Amino acid sequence: MRKHHISTGWPRRDPRLYRFPIPNAVWEYQLKPIEFVLLSYLCCLHSRKSDWVEITTGAVATAVNLTVGTAKKHLATLKSAEIITEHNTLSPKFLSASEGNFFSLPNEIFLLKLPPSAFMVYAYLLLIEDRRTHTCHPSYNTIAATTGMCRNTVIKSIGVLLNKGLIEAEHSHYLDQHGLKWNGNNLYTILSTQRAVDKFHQKQLDQLELEAARRRVRKRQEKYDLRHPRATCIPPAPGVPDPTPAL
Fold first, then answer.
1. 18-32, 43-57, 118-132 — which is least confidently predicted?
2. Which domain holds residue 159?
3. What is the distance in angstroms between the CA of the first residue and the CA of the last residue of the chain?
4. Higher pLDDT, 242 or 205
5. What is the pLDDT averaged over residues 217-231?
6. Same domain flag for 33 and 102
7. Number of structural domains, the chain?
8. How many C-beta atoms surround the C-beta of residue 91 within 10 A?
């Protein structure tokens, strides 16, 4: 009898077929990280050629892990800059600004619930990466100047991306004309998004299993307490001395 193999892992997909483009002109608007995330999600929806007449603010907020009030506030900023329309779709002005120059992000990036600052730094690394080696080596100051964030925020964001498994960083050094050794820029390698998604899903499963184990322990404790009620202090009858020693 022929045996059928059942896969137990997460489904694998070719990441090159599941990416969405963002116009390079996005960096000219000097957006805040939250605004950048919102716009990126709208670019993702646009690449799917959705037939929706209007994309609701609530749906966008849920997709990027924001409150409706916060999403509404920053979407209004994008509308005032004529980047998106009143229906939360990309404006023709924004789409034509880059004259066909785009970079791409993986669709799965929204599953990882990155902080907006880390999301924006990751997008910039993808913008400047070498497409053959998937590497780049910008300085913290260069990233900060492009994204509009402070240097410390950039360093923290790099740490988040390393922890998520989206990138690897290798320290570099160089010698100046006097032969002195100095620290150079980090060499970043962009890793497969699938690995980061697998890691994220596994962490969620571990958390669910931990919560289930805690619930089982609580139920066992409740059953034990019902079968073995704790002794209560019964006051002595009138005229009977209290055996409890005085403190």
1. 43-57
2. 114-191
3. 80
4. 205
5. 76
6. yes
7. 3
8. 16
